[in-house]
Amino acid sequence: MRNYDVLIIGTGVAGLFAALNLSSDKQILIATKGTLEDNDSFLAQGGICVQRDEMDFEPFLEDTLRAGHYENNEAAVATMINQSQEIIDDLIDLGVAFDKKGAGFSYTKEGAHSRARILHCKDMTGKEINSKLIARVKELKNVSIFENSTLVDLLVAGDRCHGAVLRDQAGKLSNVYAQSTLLATGGIGGLFSKTTNFAHLTGDAIAIALKHGIRVKDLDYVQIHPTSLYTGRSGRAFLMSESLRGEGAILVGKDGQRFADELLPRDLLTKAIYTQMEKDRLPYVRMLLKGHVEGSIAGRFPGIHAHCLQEGYDLVEDYIPVVPAQHYFMGGIAVDLNSKTSLANLYAAGETSCNGVHGKNRLASNSLLESLVFSKRAAQAIDESFQCALPYPFPEPDARSIEAGLKEANRKLLEETGSEEEAHAK
Ligand SMILES: Cc1cc2nc3c(=O)[nH]c(=O)nc-3n(C[C@H](O)[C@H](O)[C@H](O)COP(=O)(O)OP(=O)(O)OC[C@H]3O[C@@H](n4cnc5c(N)ncnc54)[C@H](O)[C@@H]3O)c2cc1C
Questions:
Q1: Based on the domain organization, do 281 and 135 belong to the same domain?
Q2: Are both 214 and 234 inside the same structural domain?
Q3: Nearest-CA residue for atom 13 of ligand 1
Q4: How many other CB atoms are there within 10 angstroms of residue 383's CB atom?
Q5: Are 302 and 168 found together in one domain?
Q6: Which CATH number goes with the domain that contains 261?
Q7: Do both 317 and 259 map to the same domain?
Q8: Of 104, 241, 252, 319, which is least surrounded by CB within 10 A?
Q9: Do the record's keywords include Nuclease (predicted)?
Q10: Whether the CB of 338 sits within 6 Å of ligand 1
Protein backbone atom coordinates (compact mmCIF):
# COMPACT_ATOMS: atom_id res chain seq x y z
CA MET A 1 0.00 0.00 0.00
CA ARG A 2 1.34 3.43 -0.94
CA ASN A 3 1.07 5.81 1.98
CA TYR A 4 2.36 9.39 2.08
CA ASP A 5 1.93 12.43 4.30
CA VAL A 6 1.17 14.69 1.35
CA LEU A 7 0.14 13.84 -2.19
CA ILE A 8 0.57 16.63 -4.77
CA ILE A 9 -0.95 16.29 -8.22
CA GLY A 10 0.78 18.37 -10.90
CA THR A 11 4.29 19.71 -11.57
CA GLY A 12 3.52 23.26 -12.66
CA VAL A 13 4.59 26.13 -10.41
CA ALA A 14 1.73 25.47 -7.97
CA GLY A 15 2.61 21.81 -7.31
CA LEU A 16 6.38 22.28 -7.18
CA PHE A 17 6.35 25.40 -5.01
CA ALA A 18 4.06 23.69 -2.50
CA ALA A 19 6.52 20.79 -2.24
CA LEU A 20 9.36 23.26 -1.63
CA ASN A 21 7.39 24.99 1.12
CA LEU A 22 6.24 21.93 3.05
CA SER A 23 8.32 20.99 6.08
CA SER A 24 11.08 18.51 5.30
CA ASP A 25 9.73 15.93 7.77
CA LYS A 26 6.77 15.23 5.44
CA GLN A 27 6.94 12.31 3.02
CA ILE A 28 5.64 13.73 -0.24
CA LEU A 29 4.60 12.16 -3.52
CA ILE A 30 4.21 14.37 -6.60
CA ALA A 31 2.33 12.73 -9.46
CA THR A 32 1.99 14.28 -12.89
CA LYS A 33 0.10 13.32 -16.02
CA GLY A 34 2.92 13.91 -18.51
CA THR A 35 6.60 14.52 -17.93
CA LEU A 36 7.83 16.97 -15.30
CA GLU A 37 8.06 19.74 -17.88
CA ASP A 38 4.72 19.23 -19.66
CA ASN A 39 2.80 22.06 -18.03
CA ASP A 40 1.57 25.54 -18.85
CA SER A 41 3.89 27.08 -16.27
CA PHE A 42 6.75 26.15 -18.57
CA LEU A 43 5.10 28.06 -21.45
CA ALA A 44 4.61 31.37 -19.62
CA GLN A 45 6.25 34.08 -21.65
CA GLY A 46 5.41 37.58 -20.44
CA GLY A 47 6.34 37.54 -16.76
CA ILE A 48 5.18 37.76 -13.18
CA CYS A 49 3.62 40.76 -11.46
CA VAL A 50 5.02 42.27 -8.30
CA GLN A 51 4.03 45.23 -6.14
CA ARG A 52 6.92 47.55 -6.95
CA ASP A 53 6.75 49.77 -3.88
CA GLU A 54 4.34 50.91 -1.18
CA MET A 55 2.71 53.38 -3.58
CA ASP A 56 1.87 50.53 -5.96
CA PHE A 57 -0.57 48.66 -3.67
CA GLU A 58 -3.67 50.67 -4.59
CA PRO A 59 -2.97 50.87 -8.36
CA PHE A 60 -2.15 47.13 -8.53
CA LEU A 61 -5.36 46.33 -6.62
CA GLU A 62 -7.44 48.62 -8.82
CA ASP A 63 -5.94 47.25 -12.08
CA THR A 64 -6.71 43.67 -10.99
CA LEU A 65 -10.26 44.55 -9.93
CA ARG A 66 -11.00 46.58 -13.06
CA ALA A 67 -9.75 43.79 -15.35
CA GLY A 68 -11.88 41.34 -13.32
CA HIS A 69 -15.02 43.50 -13.73
CA TYR A 70 -15.02 44.02 -9.94
CA GLU A 71 -16.20 40.44 -9.44
CA ASN A 72 -12.91 39.57 -7.71
CA ASN A 73 -12.58 38.47 -4.10
CA GLU A 74 -10.86 41.63 -2.87
CA ALA A 75 -9.32 39.89 0.17
CA ALA A 76 -7.65 37.38 -2.18
CA VAL A 77 -6.32 40.18 -4.37
CA ALA A 78 -4.91 42.04 -1.34
CA THR A 79 -3.32 38.82 -0.04
CA MET A 80 -1.69 38.16 -3.42
CA ILE A 81 -0.32 41.68 -3.73
CA ASN A 82 0.91 41.82 -0.12
CA GLN A 83 2.86 38.58 -0.58
CA SER A 84 4.19 39.37 -4.06
CA GLN A 85 7.57 40.78 -2.98
CA GLU A 86 8.15 37.84 -0.62
CA ILE A 87 7.47 35.40 -3.49
CA ILE A 88 9.89 37.19 -5.81
CA ASP A 89 12.55 37.05 -3.06
CA ASP A 90 11.86 33.30 -2.68
CA LEU A 91 12.29 32.79 -6.43
CA ILE A 92 15.55 34.72 -6.48
CA ASP A 93 16.80 32.60 -3.56
CA LEU A 94 15.87 29.49 -5.57
CA GLY A 95 18.05 30.73 -8.44
CA VAL A 96 15.60 32.48 -10.78
CA ALA A 97 17.43 35.15 -12.80
CA PHE A 98 15.05 37.98 -13.69
CA ASP A 99 16.17 40.42 -16.40
CA LYS A 100 18.01 43.44 -15.11
CA LYS A 101 18.13 47.06 -16.22
CA GLY A 102 21.14 48.91 -14.91
CA ALA A 103 21.55 48.12 -11.22
CA GLY A 104 17.89 47.15 -10.77
CA PHE A 105 15.31 44.89 -12.37
CA SER A 106 13.67 45.44 -15.74
CA TYR A 107 9.89 45.84 -15.41
CA THR A 108 7.50 45.58 -18.32
CA LYS A 109 3.84 46.47 -18.77
CA GLU A 110 0.97 44.50 -20.28
CA GLY A 111 -2.71 45.09 -21.03
CA ALA A 112 -4.75 46.94 -18.37
CA HIS A 113 -1.72 47.64 -16.12
CA SER A 114 -1.44 51.30 -15.14
CA ARG A 115 2.23 50.84 -14.37
CA ALA A 116 5.21 48.68 -15.43
CA ARG A 117 5.32 46.04 -12.65
CA ILE A 118 6.04 42.78 -14.46
CA LEU A 119 9.34 41.01 -13.92
CA HIS A 120 10.49 38.78 -16.75
CA CYS A 121 13.20 36.48 -18.02
CA LYS A 122 13.24 37.56 -21.68
CA ASP A 123 10.11 35.91 -23.17
CA MET A 124 10.68 32.60 -21.33
CA THR A 125 9.78 33.53 -17.76
CA GLY A 126 7.87 30.32 -17.04
CA LYS A 127 10.67 28.10 -18.31
CA GLU A 128 13.21 29.90 -16.12
CA ILE A 129 11.00 29.68 -13.01
CA ASN A 130 9.77 26.13 -13.48
CA SER A 131 13.14 24.66 -14.38
CA LYS A 132 14.67 26.20 -11.23
CA LEU A 133 11.78 24.80 -9.13
CA ILE A 134 12.24 21.34 -10.69
CA ALA A 135 15.98 21.42 -9.93
CA ARG A 136 15.35 22.36 -6.28
CA VAL A 137 12.56 19.77 -5.81
CA LYS A 138 14.82 17.04 -7.21
CA GLU A 139 17.30 17.84 -4.43
CA LEU A 140 14.69 17.07 -1.73
CA LYS A 141 15.17 13.66 -0.11
CA ASN A 142 11.58 13.55 1.19
CA VAL A 143 9.96 13.92 -2.24
CA SER A 144 9.20 11.14 -4.75
CA ILE A 145 8.03 12.01 -8.26
CA PHE A 146 5.85 9.85 -10.51
CA GLU A 147 5.71 11.01 -14.12
CA ASN A 148 3.02 9.77 -16.55
CA SER A 149 0.79 9.14 -13.56
CA THR A 150 -2.77 10.43 -13.91
CA LEU A 151 -5.25 11.38 -11.21
CA VAL A 152 -8.48 9.52 -12.03
CA ASP A 153 -10.35 9.74 -8.74
CA LEU A 154 -10.15 10.89 -5.12
CA LEU A 155 -10.42 8.58 -2.13
CA VAL A 156 -13.30 10.15 -0.22
CA ALA A 157 -14.90 8.73 2.92
CA GLY A 158 -16.24 10.08 6.19
CA ASP A 159 -16.33 13.67 4.88
CA ARG A 160 -12.61 13.80 4.24
CA CYS A 161 -10.13 13.08 1.52
CA HIS A 162 -7.78 10.15 2.09
CA GLY A 163 -5.72 10.39 -1.10
CA ALA A 164 -6.33 9.56 -4.73
CA VAL A 165 -6.52 6.89 -7.37
CA LEU A 166 -3.70 7.17 -9.92
CA ARG A 167 -3.37 5.48 -13.31
CA ASP A 168 0.15 4.69 -14.54
CA GLN A 169 1.35 4.63 -18.15
CA ALA A 170 0.48 0.93 -18.49
CA GLY A 171 -3.09 1.68 -17.37
CA LYS A 172 -2.67 0.12 -13.90
CA LEU A 173 -4.78 1.78 -11.19
CA SER A 174 -3.54 2.22 -7.61
CA ASN A 175 -4.86 3.76 -4.43
CA VAL A 176 -2.39 6.28 -3.02
CA TYR A 177 -3.14 7.20 0.59
CA ALA A 178 -2.21 10.61 1.95
CA GLN A 179 -3.04 12.63 5.05
CA SER A 180 -3.36 15.72 2.83
CA THR A 181 -3.86 15.99 -0.91
CA LEU A 182 -3.14 19.09 -3.04
CA LEU A 183 -4.67 19.39 -6.50
CA ALA A 184 -2.48 21.52 -8.79
CA THR A 185 -3.61 20.24 -12.17
CA GLY A 186 -3.76 23.51 -14.10
CA GLY A 187 -6.38 24.66 -16.58
CA ILE A 188 -8.92 23.31 -19.05
CA GLY A 189 -7.43 24.35 -22.41
CA GLY A 190 -7.31 20.75 -23.64
CA LEU A 191 -11.12 20.84 -23.87
CA PHE A 192 -10.86 23.50 -26.61
CA SER A 193 -9.85 23.06 -30.25
CA LYS A 194 -7.89 26.35 -30.29
CA THR A 195 -5.91 26.89 -27.11
CA THR A 196 -2.49 28.11 -26.03
CA ASN A 197 -2.48 25.36 -23.35
CA PHE A 198 -1.02 21.85 -23.37
CA ALA A 199 -3.63 19.44 -24.77
CA HIS A 200 -3.47 17.12 -21.74
CA LEU A 201 -4.73 19.88 -19.40
CA THR A 202 -8.40 18.94 -19.42
CA GLY A 203 -9.63 20.07 -16.01
CA ASP A 204 -9.51 16.51 -14.62
CA ALA A 205 -9.41 17.56 -10.97
CA ILE A 206 -12.38 19.89 -11.47
CA ALA A 207 -14.43 17.11 -13.08
CA ILE A 208 -13.53 14.78 -10.18
CA ALA A 209 -14.48 17.52 -7.70
CA LEU A 210 -17.88 17.81 -9.41
CA LYS A 211 -18.31 14.04 -9.11
CA HIS A 212 -17.77 14.18 -5.33
CA GLY A 213 -19.87 17.29 -4.72
CA ILE A 214 -16.79 19.35 -3.74
CA ARG A 215 -17.58 23.05 -4.13
CA VAL A 216 -16.61 24.65 -7.45
CA LYS A 217 -16.92 28.26 -8.59
CA ASP A 218 -17.28 30.33 -11.79
CA LEU A 219 -16.97 27.38 -14.17
CA ASP A 220 -18.10 29.49 -17.13
CA TYR A 221 -15.33 32.09 -16.68
CA VAL A 222 -13.03 31.09 -19.54
CA GLN A 223 -10.43 33.56 -20.77
CA ILE A 224 -9.78 33.99 -24.48
CA HIS A 225 -6.38 35.59 -25.16
CA PRO A 226 -6.55 38.23 -27.89
CA THR A 227 -3.34 37.32 -29.72
CA SER A 228 -2.12 33.89 -30.73
CA LEU A 229 -0.23 33.31 -33.97
CA TYR A 230 -2.60 32.53 -36.84
CA THR A 231 -1.49 29.50 -38.86
CA GLY A 232 -4.73 28.06 -40.24
CA ARG A 233 -3.61 24.68 -38.87
CA SER A 234 -5.03 22.73 -35.93
CA GLY A 235 -2.94 21.99 -32.83
CA ARG A 236 -1.71 24.14 -29.94
CA ALA A 237 -1.92 27.85 -30.68
CA PHE A 238 1.36 29.72 -30.17
CA LEU A 239 0.91 32.70 -27.87
CA MET A 240 1.98 36.14 -29.06
CA SER A 241 2.66 37.47 -25.57
CA GLU A 242 0.85 40.50 -24.24
CA SER A 243 4.28 41.92 -23.40
CA LEU A 244 4.79 42.50 -27.16
CA ARG A 245 1.91 44.98 -26.99
CA GLY A 246 3.15 46.16 -23.59
CA GLU A 247 6.42 47.15 -25.28
CA GLY A 248 4.53 49.01 -28.04
CA ALA A 249 3.38 46.53 -30.75
CA ILE A 250 0.25 47.68 -32.59
CA LEU A 251 -2.66 45.79 -34.12
CA VAL A 252 -4.05 46.77 -37.51
CA GLY A 253 -6.88 45.67 -39.77
CA LYS A 254 -6.80 45.01 -43.52
CA ASP A 255 -6.57 48.76 -44.21
CA GLY A 256 -3.39 49.04 -42.12
CA GLN A 257 -5.17 51.21 -39.53
CA ARG A 258 -5.24 50.63 -35.77
CA PHE A 259 -8.73 49.73 -34.53
CA ALA A 260 -8.38 49.49 -30.71
CA ASP A 261 -6.22 50.38 -27.73
CA GLU A 262 -3.84 47.40 -27.72
CA LEU A 263 -3.62 47.49 -23.92
CA LEU A 264 -7.31 47.01 -23.21
CA PRO A 265 -8.16 44.18 -20.77
CA ARG A 266 -7.99 40.84 -22.60
CA ASP A 267 -11.73 40.24 -22.92
CA LEU A 268 -12.40 43.71 -24.37
CA LEU A 269 -9.53 43.54 -26.86
CA THR A 270 -10.66 40.06 -27.95
CA LYS A 271 -14.11 41.51 -28.74
CA ALA A 272 -12.55 44.37 -30.73
CA ILE A 273 -10.43 41.90 -32.73
CA TYR A 274 -13.44 39.72 -33.57
CA THR A 275 -15.34 42.81 -34.74
CA GLN A 276 -12.42 43.83 -36.97
CA MET A 277 -12.02 40.29 -38.37
CA GLU A 278 -15.68 40.28 -39.31
CA LYS A 279 -15.39 43.70 -40.96
CA ASP A 280 -12.28 42.60 -42.91
CA ARG A 281 -13.72 39.13 -43.65
CA LEU A 282 -10.35 37.68 -42.61
CA PRO A 283 -9.52 34.98 -40.01
CA TYR A 284 -6.93 37.25 -38.34
CA VAL A 285 -5.76 40.81 -37.73
CA ARG A 286 -2.10 41.82 -37.96
CA MET A 287 0.48 42.80 -35.37
CA LEU A 288 3.39 45.10 -36.12
CA LEU A 289 6.44 45.73 -33.93
CA LYS A 290 8.69 47.57 -36.42
CA GLY A 291 8.78 51.28 -35.64
CA HIS A 292 6.78 50.82 -32.43
CA VAL A 293 9.00 48.73 -30.12
CA GLU A 294 12.25 50.27 -28.94
CA GLY A 295 15.51 48.37 -28.57
CA SER A 296 16.44 44.94 -29.90
CA ILE A 297 13.27 42.99 -30.68
CA ALA A 298 15.17 39.75 -31.27
CA GLY A 299 17.10 40.25 -28.01
CA ARG A 300 14.03 40.98 -25.89
CA PHE A 301 11.80 38.28 -27.46
CA PRO A 302 14.16 35.50 -28.61
CA GLY A 303 11.66 32.64 -28.19
CA ILE A 304 8.83 34.35 -30.04
CA HIS A 305 11.23 35.61 -32.73
CA ALA A 306 12.59 32.09 -33.34
CA HIS A 307 9.09 30.59 -33.48
CA CYS A 308 7.84 33.23 -35.94
CA LEU A 309 10.87 32.62 -38.19
CA GLN A 310 9.97 28.90 -38.27
CA GLU A 311 6.49 29.92 -39.44
CA GLY A 312 7.92 32.21 -42.12
CA TYR A 313 7.56 35.59 -40.37
CA ASP A 314 10.26 37.98 -39.20
CA LEU A 315 9.06 39.53 -35.93
CA VAL A 316 11.48 42.44 -36.45
CA GLU A 317 10.21 43.40 -39.91
CA ASP A 318 6.89 41.77 -40.78
CA TYR A 319 3.21 42.12 -40.06
CA ILE A 320 2.29 38.98 -38.06
CA PRO A 321 -1.23 37.47 -38.36
CA VAL A 322 -2.83 36.98 -34.95
CA VAL A 323 -6.15 35.57 -33.74
CA PRO A 324 -7.79 35.02 -30.31
CA ALA A 325 -7.49 31.58 -28.65
CA GLN A 326 -8.58 29.98 -25.35
CA HIS A 327 -5.88 30.71 -22.79
CA TYR A 328 -6.89 30.64 -19.13
CA PHE A 329 -9.59 29.52 -16.70
CA MET A 330 -10.67 31.91 -13.94
CA GLY A 331 -13.07 29.35 -12.40
CA GLY A 332 -12.20 26.11 -10.66
CA ILE A 333 -12.37 24.24 -7.38
CA ALA A 334 -13.53 26.74 -4.75
CA VAL A 335 -10.89 27.42 -2.08
CA ASP A 336 -10.36 29.80 0.81
CA LEU A 337 -7.30 32.01 1.24
CA ASN A 338 -5.33 29.02 2.53
CA SER A 339 -6.30 26.97 -0.54
CA LYS A 340 -8.58 24.64 1.46
CA THR A 341 -11.43 23.10 -0.50
CA SER A 342 -14.85 22.26 0.92
CA LEU A 343 -13.61 18.70 1.62
CA ALA A 344 -11.42 18.20 4.70
CA ASN A 345 -7.74 17.40 3.97
CA LEU A 346 -8.12 18.39 0.32
CA TYR A 347 -6.41 21.53 -1.02
CA ALA A 348 -6.25 23.08 -4.50
CA ALA A 349 -3.91 25.75 -5.87
CA GLY A 350 -2.98 27.34 -9.17
CA GLU A 351 -5.20 27.49 -12.22
CA THR A 352 -7.35 24.53 -11.18
CA SER A 353 -8.49 26.38 -8.05
CA CYS A 354 -10.70 29.43 -7.68
CA ASN A 355 -10.28 31.79 -4.74
CA GLY A 356 -11.86 34.58 -6.77
CA VAL A 357 -8.63 36.54 -7.20
CA HIS A 358 -9.17 37.11 -10.94
CA GLY A 359 -12.89 37.82 -10.91
CA LYS A 360 -14.37 37.49 -14.37
CA ASN A 361 -11.19 38.22 -16.33
CA ARG A 362 -7.57 37.75 -15.28
CA LEU A 363 -5.11 40.64 -15.42
CA ALA A 364 -1.98 39.78 -17.41
CA SER A 365 0.88 38.11 -15.50
CA ASN A 366 -1.15 37.61 -12.33
CA SER A 367 -1.38 33.84 -12.79
CA LEU A 368 2.17 32.76 -11.97
CA LEU A 369 2.02 35.06 -8.95
CA GLU A 370 -1.36 33.75 -7.78
CA SER A 371 -0.23 30.12 -8.20
CA LEU A 372 2.92 30.72 -6.15
CA VAL A 373 1.32 32.80 -3.38
CA PHE A 374 -1.55 30.40 -2.77
CA SER A 375 0.44 27.17 -3.13
CA LYS A 376 2.84 28.48 -0.48
CA ARG A 377 -0.17 29.27 1.72
CA ALA A 378 -1.51 25.75 1.05
CA ALA A 379 1.80 24.25 2.17
CA GLN A 380 1.76 26.33 5.36
CA ALA A 381 -1.87 25.36 6.09
CA ILE A 382 -1.09 21.67 5.53
CA ASP A 383 1.89 21.87 7.90
CA GLU A 384 -0.13 23.71 10.55
CA SER A 385 -3.15 21.41 10.53
CA PHE A 386 -1.30 18.15 9.93
CA GLN A 387 -2.63 15.22 11.94
CA CYS A 388 -1.66 11.64 11.34
CA ALA A 389 -4.63 9.31 11.00
CA LEU A 390 -4.70 5.65 10.07
CA PRO A 391 -5.51 5.19 6.39
CA TYR A 392 -9.12 4.34 5.68
CA PRO A 393 -9.22 0.96 3.92
CA PHE A 394 -10.55 1.44 0.38
CA PRO A 395 -11.12 -1.51 -1.97
CA GLU A 396 -8.73 -1.87 -4.90
CA PRO A 397 -9.91 0.49 -7.68
CA ASP A 398 -12.18 -1.01 -10.29
CA ALA A 399 -11.28 0.12 -13.82
CA ARG A 400 -14.83 0.00 -15.19
CA SER A 401 -16.43 2.04 -12.45
CA ILE A 402 -13.54 4.56 -12.47
CA GLU A 403 -13.92 5.04 -16.25
CA ALA A 404 -17.71 5.38 -15.99
CA GLY A 405 -17.31 7.91 -13.15
CA LEU A 406 -14.77 9.94 -15.16
CA LYS A 407 -16.99 9.97 -18.22
CA GLU A 408 -19.92 11.32 -16.24
CA ALA A 409 -17.68 13.85 -14.43
CA ASN A 410 -16.29 15.13 -17.74
CA ARG A 411 -19.79 15.45 -19.16
CA LYS A 412 -20.77 17.60 -16.15
CA LEU A 413 -17.65 19.75 -16.53
CA LEU A 414 -18.37 20.45 -20.21
CA GLU A 415 -21.95 21.32 -19.34
CA GLU A 416 -20.77 23.82 -16.71
CA THR A 417 -17.99 25.49 -18.73
CA GLY A 418 -20.22 25.93 -21.79
CA SER A 419 -19.35 25.42 -25.44
CA GLU A 420 -16.28 26.74 -27.21
CA GLU A 421 -18.48 29.09 -29.27
CA GLU A 422 -20.05 30.51 -26.09
CA ALA A 423 -16.62 31.19 -24.56
CA HIS A 424 -15.47 33.09 -27.66
CA ALA A 425 -18.74 35.00 -27.94
CA LYS A 426 -18.69 36.36 -24.36
C1 LIG B 1 1.39 30.04 -23.52
C2 LIG B 1 1.11 30.55 -22.13
C3 LIG B 1 1.74 31.70 -21.67
C4 LIG B 1 1.45 32.18 -20.38
N5 LIG B 1 2.12 33.28 -19.93
C6 LIG B 1 1.93 33.70 -18.66
C7 LIG B 1 2.68 34.79 -18.12
O8 LIG B 1 3.52 35.36 -18.79
N9 LIG B 1 2.43 35.15 -16.83
C10 LIG B 1 1.50 34.53 -16.04
O11 LIG B 1 1.32 34.92 -14.88
N12 LIG B 1 0.80 33.48 -16.52
C13 LIG B 1 1.00 33.05 -17.80
N14 LIG B 1 0.29 31.98 -18.27
C15 LIG B 1 -0.60 31.27 -17.37
C16 LIG B 1 0.22 30.44 -16.40
O17 LIG B 1 1.33 29.90 -17.04
C18 LIG B 1 -0.59 29.31 -15.78
O19 LIG B 1 -1.86 29.74 -15.41
C20 LIG B 1 0.11 28.79 -14.54
O21 LIG B 1 1.43 28.45 -14.87
C22 LIG B 1 -0.63 27.60 -13.97
O23 LIG B 1 0.21 26.89 -13.11
P24 LIG B 1 -0.33 25.56 -12.46
O25 LIG B 1 0.77 25.03 -11.63
O26 LIG B 1 -1.63 25.82 -11.83
O27 LIG B 1 -0.64 24.61 -13.71
P28 LIG B 1 0.30 23.99 -14.84
O29 LIG B 1 1.60 24.67 -14.90
O30 LIG B 1 -0.48 23.93 -16.09
O31 LIG B 1 0.56 22.52 -14.32
C32 LIG B 1 -0.48 21.59 -14.24
C33 LIG B 1 0.12 20.25 -13.91
O34 LIG B 1 -0.91 19.31 -13.60
C35 LIG B 1 -0.68 18.10 -14.28
N36 LIG B 1 -1.95 17.40 -14.46
C37 LIG B 1 -3.07 17.83 -15.11
N38 LIG B 1 -4.04 16.90 -15.02
C39 LIG B 1 -3.53 15.87 -14.29
C40 LIG B 1 -4.04 14.63 -13.86
N41 LIG B 1 -5.27 14.22 -14.14
N42 LIG B 1 -3.21 13.81 -13.16
C43 LIG B 1 -1.93 14.18 -12.87
N44 LIG B 1 -1.42 15.36 -13.24
C45 LIG B 1 -2.20 16.19 -13.94
C46 LIG B 1 -0.01 18.53 -15.57
O47 LIG B 1 0.68 17.46 -16.19
C48 LIG B 1 0.92 19.62 -15.05
O49 LIG B 1 2.08 19.06 -14.52
C50 LIG B 1 0.54 31.49 -19.56
C51 LIG B 1 -0.09 30.34 -20.03
C52 LIG B 1 0.19 29.87 -21.29
C53 LIG B 1 -0.50 28.63 -21.77
A1: no
A2: no
A3: 44
A4: 16
A5: no
A6: 3.90.700.10
A7: yes
A8: 104
A9: no
A10: no
pLDDT in tens, the chain (426 residues): 689 999 999 999 999 999 999 999 999 999 999 999 999 999 999 999 999 999 999 999 999 999 999 999 999 999 999 999 999 999 999 999 999 999 999 999 999 999 999 999 999 999 999 999 999 999 999 999 999 999 999 999 989 999 999 999 999 999 999 999 999 999 999 999 999 999 999 999 999 999 999 999 999 999 999 999 999 998 899 999 999 999 999 999 999 999 999 999 889 999 999 999 999 999 999 999 999 999 999 999 999 999 999 999 999 999 999 999 999 999 999 999 999 999 999 999 999 999 999 999 999 999 999 999 999 999 999 999 988 877 678 999 999 999 999 999 999 999 999 888 888 887
Torsion of CA 390, 392, 395, 396, to 10 degrees: -50
Pair (261, 193) in one structural domain? no
Residue 356 Cα to ligand 1 middle (Å): 18
User: 263 with 384, same domain?
Assistant: no
Q: How many CA atoms lie within 13 A of 36 on its CB side?
A: 15
Rounded Cα–Cα distance for residues 259 and 253 (Å): 7
Write down which residue in 325, 349, 377 finishes a domain: 325
Of 325, 344, 359, at which residue does a domain stop? Answer: 325
* Residues carrying an active site annotation: 266
Report which ligand 1 atom has the smallest distance to the Cα of 198.
Answer: 53
Instruction: Report d(CA 30, CA 14) in Å as an integer.
Output: 11
Test site for ligand 1: of 9, 13, 41, 129, most ligand atoms within 8 A of the Cβ: 41
Query: Do 314 and 360 have their domain in common?
Result: no
Task: Say if strands 2-9 and 28-31 run parallel, antiparallel, or are unpaired.
Answer: parallel
CATH value at residue 19: 3.50.50.60
Tell me the residue range of the domain where 240 lies. 229-325
Residues whose CB falls within 8 Å of the CB of residue 88, separated by 6 or more in sequence, listed in order? 48, 50, 98, 119
CA 296 to chain centre: 29
321 and 335: one domain?
Answer: no
Q: How far apart are CA 44 and CA 190, in angstroms?
A: 16
Query: For a pocket test of ligand 1, which of 368, 372, 413 has the largest count of ligand atoms closer than 8 A to its C-beta?
Result: 368
